């Protein structure tokens, strides 16, 4: 097979090989549209005849979300196009198949799809070692992010960029949409000293960047200790106003609790609350992140209170937990086309749940829980406000200047206007 035939094979693939490895066919509940509006970075890489990777040994940071426009797994696309030049795979939290639970240790393995070694970056190592990079000239990153600072795929990319910079390896990001869109910049900044694997870079909690734009900004702003030579392969057809449904692309569950294309909106809104004990945000139910509940709460009263606070494009329904008897609160219904300040809602939910449950989520939390909660939020400010019973509006007011500064700082690094 000549090079062009191999490239055509990589682009077309075999439709029968879409997303193998799904036990019983469940979990990845999607349908593949015939004409997506957006061409992804992986599609553009194929169209360029893999130009950015020519003659190089390639390591690939990937998982089940890494698919091309037609739904073919990106690692098959690369293997068909590059042959033996694709030398190793690297997987983030949740593993290559995205099925491991949050925080679960993921071991190194052999990938059953490609037969290649698959090194875990959420096991014994979170940063590629020199041994892992021995047969790699360029590292490629192609994973679907959700636009939330605490989601660890960002951290995996930054640490891998650092490792490649140290080892003299190039780094290529195949860009993908931000499912929250590219306009929503909301939430608290990251305070110096609270950097961690759940807050790796100093962006707002909702940053409005694609993963490629974030990589560009990280290099330019010095967020990578040893920056590699970076190439971003941009998308075609994506606009900042788009949510996921506008792209025409199929959604692949990015982790067990992000099953649907609008799940990131709910994760953004209740994820910080969910770091506390004695709360219920729906983890373990069919609607993860879509609830905000605590012990001994009057759900109807809480729903009425939140409704009266003037949030747009969101509905609050009384909720009585089946997962945690005695817990109640609200179910959220978010309009993904709306302009709700999701992080203002997040703060209101934290205040309501903590106050209405007599601060049980705080008193029931361990020192480790408090530490993780503060790292996810980016400082101790929210915990202190909840202890003091301060209005959530005070927190939101504190974000104004940092968000204004971030908007200016990110402007030079945007790939899509």
Sequence-ordered SSE layout with sheet pairings:
Layout: H1 3-12, H2 41-47, E1 58-61, H3 74-82, E2 86-91, E3 109-110, E4 117-120, E5 138-141, H4 153-167, E6 170-174, H5 211-220, E7 230-233, H6 244-247, H7 263-270, E8 291-295, H8 299-307, E9 314-320, E10 327-334, H9 342-356, H10 360-363, H11 367-377, H12 381-388, H13 392-398, H14 400-410
Parallel strand pairs: 1-2, 1-5, 2-4, 5-6, 6-7
Antiparallel strand pairs: 3-4, 8-10, 9-10
Helix pairs in contact: 1-3, 7-9, 9-13
Q: In the residues, how many domains can be counted? A: 2
Q: Write down how many β-strands occur, each being a DSSP E stretch of 2 or more residues.
A: 10
Strand order of the largest sheet: 3-4-2-1-5-6-7
Rg over C-alpha atoms, rounded to the nearest angstrom: 21 Å
Full CATH superfamily name of the largest domain: Uncharacterised protein PF07075, DUF1343
pLDDT < 50 stretches: 1-33
Structural class: alpha/beta
Folded structure, characterized:
With 417 residues, the protein is of the alpha/beta class. It has two domains: 3-253, Rossmann fold, CATH 3.40.50.12170; 263-398, Aspartate Aminotransferase, domain 1 (Alpha-Beta Complex), CATH 3.90.1150.140. It contains 14 helices and ten strands. The chain has helices at 3-12, 41-47, 74-82, 153-167, 211-220, 244-247, 263-270, 299-307, 342-356, 360-363, 367-377, 381-388, 392-398, 400-410; strands spanning 58-61, 86-91, 109-110, 117-120, 138-141, 170-174, 230-233, 291-295, 314-320, 327-334. The strands form two sheets. It has a seven-stranded mixed beta sheet with strand order 3-4-2-1-5-6-7, sandwiched between helices. The protein has a three-stranded antiparallel beta sheet with strand order 8-10-9. The longest helix is centred in the middle third of the chain and has 15 residues, at 153-167. It is globular. The chain starts with a helix and ends in a 7-residue tail after the last helix.
């Amino acid at each position: 097979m000549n090079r062009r035939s191999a490239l055509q094979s990589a682009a077309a693939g075999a439709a029968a090989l879409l997303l193998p490895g799904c036990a019983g066919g469940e979990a990845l509940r999607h349908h593949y549209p015939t004409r997506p509006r957006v061409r992804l970075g992986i599609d553009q890489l194929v169209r360029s005849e893999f130009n950015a990777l020519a003659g190089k040994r390639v390591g690939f940071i990937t998982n089940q979300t890494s698919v091309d426009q037609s739904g073919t797994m990106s690692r098959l696309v690369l293997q068909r196009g590059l042959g033996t030049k694709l030398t190793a795979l690297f997987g983030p939290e949740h593993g290559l198949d995205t099925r491991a639970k949050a925080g679960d240790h993921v071991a190194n393995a052999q990938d059953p799809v490609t037969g290649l070694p698959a090194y875990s970056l959420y096991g014994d190592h979170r940063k590629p070692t020199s041994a892992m990079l021995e047969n790699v000239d360029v590292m490629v990153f192609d994973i679907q992010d959700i636009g939330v600072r605490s989601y660890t795929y960002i951290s995996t990319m930054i640490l891998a960029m650092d490792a490649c910079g140290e080892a003299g390896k190039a780094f290529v990001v195949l860009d993908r949409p931000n499912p929250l869109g590219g306009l929503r910049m909301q939430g608290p900044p990251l305070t110096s000293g609270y950097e961690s694997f759940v807050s790796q870079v100093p962006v707002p909690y909702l940053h409005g960047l694609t993963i490629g734009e974030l990589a560009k900004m990280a290099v330019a702003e010095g967020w990578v200790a040893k920056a590699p030579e970076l190439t971003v392969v941009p998308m075609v057809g994506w606009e900042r106003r788009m949510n996921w449904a506008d792209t025409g692309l199929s959604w692949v569950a990015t982790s067990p609790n992000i099953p649907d294309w609008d799940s990131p909106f709910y994760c953004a809104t209740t994820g910080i609350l969910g770091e506390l004990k004695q709360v219920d945000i729906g983890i373990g139910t069919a609607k993860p992140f879509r609830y905000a509940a605590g012990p001994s709460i009057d759900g109807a009263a809480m729903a009425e209170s939140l409704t009266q606070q003037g949030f747009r494009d969101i509905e609050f329904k009384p909720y009585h937990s089946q997962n945690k008897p005695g817990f109640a609160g609200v179910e959220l219904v978010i309009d993904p086309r709306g302009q709700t300040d999701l992080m203002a809602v997040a703060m209101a939910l934290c205040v309501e749940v903590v106050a209405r449950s007599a601060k049980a989520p705080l008193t029931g939390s361990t020192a480790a829980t408090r530490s993780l909660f503060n790292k996810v939020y980016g400082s101790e400010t929210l915990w202190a406000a909840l202890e003091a019973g301060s209005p959530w509006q005070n927190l939101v007011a504190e974000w104004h200047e940092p968000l204004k500064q971030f908007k200016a700082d990110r402007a030079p690094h945007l790939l899509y206007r």
